[in-house]
Amino acid sequence: MENLIALLVAAPLVGAALLLCGGKRLDRTGHWIGSLLAVASFAVGVALFADMLGKSAGHRALHQHLFSWIPVGGFRADVAFQLDQLSMTFVLLITGVGSLIHIYSIGYMEHDERRRRFFGYLNLFLAAMLLLVLADNYLLLYVGWEGVGLASYLLIGFWQHKPSAATAAKKAFLVNRVGDMGLSIAIMLMFTTFGTFAFGPVLASTGDTSEGKLTAIGLMLLLAACGKSAQVPLQSWLGDAMEGPTPVSALIHAATMVTAGVYLITRSGAIFNAAPDAQTAVVAVGAVTLLFGAIVGCAKDDIKKALAGSTMSQIGYMILAAGLGPIGYAFAIMHLVTHGFFKAGLFLGAGSVMHGMNDEVDMRRYGGLRKYMPVTFITFGLGYLAIIGFPGLSGFFSKDKIIEAAFAKGGTEGWILGGAALLGAAITAFYMTRVMLMTFFGEKRWDPSEVHPHESPKVMTIPMIVLAVGSVFAGGLFSVNEAFVKWLEPVTSFAHGHSPVSATVVTASTIVVLLIGVGIAWLMYGRKPVPSLAPRGSLLTRAARRDLLQDDFNHIVFVRGGDHVTRTLVQLDRSLVDGAVNGTAASMGGLSGLLRQLQSGFVRSYAVQMLGGAAVLVAATLLMRGV
Amino acid sequence: MTGLAAAASVTSSGEAVQFWILGIVAVVGALCTILMKRAVHSALSLAGTMIVLAVFYLANGAYFLGVVQIVVYTGAIMMLFLFVVMLVGVTAADSLKETLKGQRWLAAGLGIGFGILLIAGIGNASLKEFNGLGEANAGGNVQGLAALIFTKYVFAFEITGALLITAAVGAMVLTHRERTERAKSQREQSEARIREGKQVPPLPAPGVYARHNAVDIPGLLPDGTPSELSVNPTLRERGQIRDVSGESLAELKALEQRSEEWLGRSAEDEPKPPASGGAAPKEHKEGAKK
Amino acid sequence: MSPVYYLYLAALLFTIGAAGVLIRRNAIVVFMCIELMLNACNLAFVTFSRMHGNLDGQIIAFFTMVVAAAEVVVGLAIIVTIFRTRHTASVDDASLMKL
């Protein structure tokens, strides 16, 4: 069976190669080829999954060694795959959601003349993402990591004729570079510390290594995760990334790529477990981001940017859970999967709405759309209920567990984290209700003479329906008899936390804050009409509209600071380096000018010099004899 | 020198007298060499110094060298110098005004310093005694030298032979000029003159008078001014034209006056010399200035 | 009188010759000064020969004369050539340097 693993990666890779190199003759069939290969990859994934289920829990991991990539002395890098329960989960999520979004894109990108290229990029993304989660060492993981970065860059900037899209792509790329730098440093540290970067040896030998080194590696890995998963402080690119086509936002910037950071931290769990300081940093980042994203999501009028804020916030939950250690890894991944379903569904719904509204994204120009696009309304609504954690739906199970685990961290820390998670849940309920109300309820705020809202074609609605079904049932399914936790336990290990408050109380308070959030949103946006133009708003609202001043911060600290440093360096270069060089040259020139006087061209001057030299020699001889 | 030194440290008093007299002559000759304005005088002064040195060689027992000094140096080399001086211009006096800034002071300072150093060095050396050449010259000075030259220094001698040949060939190469084209015939020269139109007739002859039978005296034009064209261009270039027009005219005038007095005629009656004759020579003069 | 006085005289003549080389501009006179210096050296050699009681000093002086003769031949040829092309025998005029 393990020989099939390479096929998972190969199928979309072949698709990407075909579509990107195939030229115009594939324009008509390209989207079908791309989708077919994505589905094929999914089929292989399902086959492997079925095979895996047939084995006992301890023997499920598969390993495939393809070839030795860089064998140089003590340095050894292999192209080898490892398929265990954690990778399997990701494979199913990536290929499953990926296939659905491929199919959805057939309809969504129907009128785009560069559709073939779009599918090529999507396939490239799938291949890179699968490589990332299947790699059995950090170096190969890094290849996939960079590959998804490239695909993300290409897809954000897919509509490159829009300057905003081109800029957003560049921004995403640059911010990601910072994180990538962290990952590469972490890999280098691993090599110097462990002498290898294969998962097995590295994670097995954490016990023999000093905590300082592990903390350093952990912090670097966290930096990498922050970059890829849009966590504070490297969160600024995700909002702008919404410039890409909506299926891209759904697949890459909601369901899969942005969760790579969670995968990285979970995969490197052994390192973080042995480095409590790094873990503390992880939970801090997660807690801050989940509130940050939620607040930003409250203020955005652009439906995709509101959802982007929500994505940031939900990944904050996952990072928080992953930072909690063995009590949280499983729930982080579980929330990741359920989030993959409902957030992808929400984005596809948003795409469907935009599709019917002439690509309008401002929610203040929506309103009352539930009658015009019922399927979209229902699927979006189910996704909405799932994300706010409505009892019985996916989000309820996964988020509730995370909040419980946060309290279970214990001590003051536990209270703070739990409180933040609860507060986040309330804000989530608020902004998602706001999105829901502004889009589908209330009066029409669009001009019927210009816009003709309509339901999307079946090729788009069917993936939405499938995802909605997942959003509803996945969480429940996973939680039956703690199935998901037991499934992942051999890889991530699991420990029951000891919460200071009982699970029932946590669940109850979650439902209460959920209701409070929904209620406030209804009071503000449901009961009274929504103005077409955004009111000025409070200071916090205005800051949140500007993404809580993240860009201003970056501009002032990094752009201006960098400018300043550069200028100083230029000054230093001019005055010190050039000064030294030019000074040497000038002094040489001056000296030469002085010496040139001797070289007058008059033979008699030379004769004087000769006589002088002779006199000196005679004097020296006499003096030597005298001594 | 103290008189208490060994007999071998003092020369005969005759030699001492000779040294002091001729030494002064030598130094004066040397000073004249470097201070005389004309190269000819410098050369003659140097020749004098060299003769004095020849006498000193003889006094020092170097009989062969003394003779060679006179024959080769004073005879051959100094004549060569004089020959070149004549070639370059015997009467041209050098300006002794210094053109290089500080050169004279530097030269004087360095010269004096160097001399003091040398003399101090010699005085410092313990050279109180000397052996004399009586033993070495026992078989004759020339025989002694020959024995050394053809035994101990035979290679140096051969090499100097090669050096002399090289020098002779070098001098020939440097001064010899190969004619690269056929010499022009008289006809071609005259044709070229007419084509250029500058000097069609032959150049005027130098002014040869009874008193000055020499080529450096220019012929006089009818108006009494000297025609530079009548003097060899080399002399013209050196500025060695002896202008005698003034005294010639005066003599002519005196002659005329005397003849008038003798004929009893008054000067006023005599017709003026024809002015028309001066036209053509004047053109010569202008042609020369071009 | 000691033969050392010949050495003093030689030093004096040498110095005068050196000063002449430095002062005079006429290449021929400069050449003469060089000859003067060579002769001064010869005098010293001859004197040394006498002081040491062997003929080696005279041999050296003899060779000096030969070399001086060769040098004069070539040197004067050079001066003549220069005079032909430049119509001057001044050593200063041979300077083509820009200052």
TrEMBL record, chain A:
Its main location: membrane. GO terms for biological process: ATP synthesis coupled electron transport; electron transport coupled proton transport. Keywords: Membrane, Transmembrane, Transmembrane helix. One of its GO terms (molecular function) is NADH dehydrogenase activity. Pfam families: Proton_antipo_M, Proton_antipo_N. Residues 135-417 form the NADH:quinone oxidoreductase/Mrp antiporter transmembrane domain. It is a multi-pass membrane protein. Coiled coil: none annotated. InterPro entries: NADHpl_OxRdtase_5_subgr (IPR018393), ND/Mrp_TM (IPR001750), NU5C-like (IPR003945), Proton_antipo_N (IPR001516). GO terms for cellular component: endomembrane system; membrane. The chain crosses the membrane at residues 33-54, 89-106, 118-135, 141-160, 181-204, 216-234, 246-266, 278-299, 372-394, 414-441, 462-481, 501-525, 606-624. It is found in: Endomembrane system; Membrane. Residues 69-119 form the NADH-Ubiquinone oxidoreductase (complex I) chain 5 N-terminal domain. This is NADH-quinone oxidoreductase subunit L. It comes from Streptomyces inhibens.
UniProtKB/TrEMBL annotation, chain B:
Residues 178-198, 235-245, 253-272, 281-290 have a biased composition (Basic and acidic residues). GO terms for cellular component: plasma membrane. The keyword Transcription regulation does not apply. Gene3D superfamilies: NADH-ubiquinone/plastoquinone oxidoreductase chain 6, subunit NuoJ. Residues 178-207, 219-290 are annotated as: Disordered. It catalyses: a quinone + NADH + 5 H(+)(in) = a quinol + NAD(+) + 4 H(+)(out). It is an enzyme of class 7 (translocase). It is found in: Cell membrane. Its EC number is 7.1.1.-. NDH-1 shuttles electrons from NADH, via FMN and iron-sulfur (Fe-S) centers, to quinones in the respiratory chain. Couples the redox reaction to proton translocation (for every two electrons transferred, four hydrogen ions are translocated across the cytoplasmic membrane), and thus conserves the redox energy in a proton gradient. This is NADH-quinone oxidoreductase subunit J.
TrEMBL record, chain C:
InterPro entries: NADH_UbQ_OxRdtase_chain4L/K (IPR001133), NUOK/Mnh_C1-like (IPR039428). GO terms for cellular component: NADH dehydrogenase complex; plasma membrane. The keyword Transmembrane applies. It catalyses: a quinone + NADH + 5 H(+)(in) = a quinol + NAD(+) + 4 H(+)(out). It is a multi-pass membrane protein. GO terms for biological process: ATP synthesis coupled electron transport. It is found in: Cell membrane; Membrane. Signal peptide: none annotated. One of its GO terms (molecular function) is NADH dehydrogenase (quinone) (non-electrogenic) activity. The chain crosses the membrane at residues 6-23, 28-48, 60-83. Keywords: Cell membrane, Membrane, NAD, Oxidoreductase, Quinone, Translocase, Transmembrane, Transmembrane helix, Transport. Its main location: membrane. Its EC number is 7.1.1.-. NDH-1 is composed of 14 different subunits. Subunits NuoA, H, J, K, L, M, N constitute the membrane sector of the complex. Belongs to the complex I subunit 4L family. NDH-1 shuttles electrons from NADH, via FMN and iron-sulfur (Fe-S) centers, to quinones in the respiratory chain. The immediate electron acceptor for the enzyme in this species is believed to be a menaquinone. Couples the redox reaction to proton translocation (for every two electrons transferred, four hydrogen ions are translocated across the cytoplasmic membrane), and thus conserves the redox energy in a proton gradient. This is NADH-quinone oxidoreductase subunit K. It comes from Streptomyces inhibens.
